[in-house]
Write a structure and sequence with these properties.
By secondary structure, the protein is of the alpha+beta class. It has one domain. Helix content is 17%, strand content 43%. The chain is built from one helix and four strands; from the N terminus they run ββαββ. It has one helix at 37-52; strands spanning 11-18, 21-27, 56-68, 81-92. It has a four-stranded antiparallel sheet with strand order 1-2-4-3. Strand 1 (11-18) and strand 2 (21-27) form a beta hairpin. It is elongated. The chain starts with 10 loop residues before the first strand and ends with a strand.
Length: 94
């Protein structure tokens, strides 16, 4: 289970796979409203730039929706994601 959402900032957790590979879980703030992709991926890009200085690069990335806003009048395809996690795998450049 994920920790309680923090409304102030995107947080991330590093999960070391081996010395040259790490999985990073990014979770943006839970505002209850529509997500802002620019803010989310801007945070990831800034973190990736810092990791690049240590010789790490993004190997893969996946976004997992955690909560979808309720459908309006039960219409399929209505609503938007209100919570998500982005899983990014970093590996050391060779």
């Amino acid at each position: 289970m994920l920790p309680e959402p923090r409304p102030e900032a995107t947080w991330h957790q590093d999960l070391e796979v081996r010395p040259d590979q790490v999985i990073v879980l990014y979770v943006p703030p839970d505002t209850g409203g529509e997500l802002d992709p620019s803010a989310i991926y801007g945070h990831i890009a800034a973190d990736a730039a810092k990791r690049d200085q240590d010789g790490m690069r993004i190997a893969s990335m996946h976004a997992t929706p955690l909560r979808h806003a309720g459908a309006y009048l039960g219409r399929n395809g209505n609503g938007f994601e209100t919570r998500l996690a982005v899983v990014t795998v970093y590996e050391r450049r060779r």
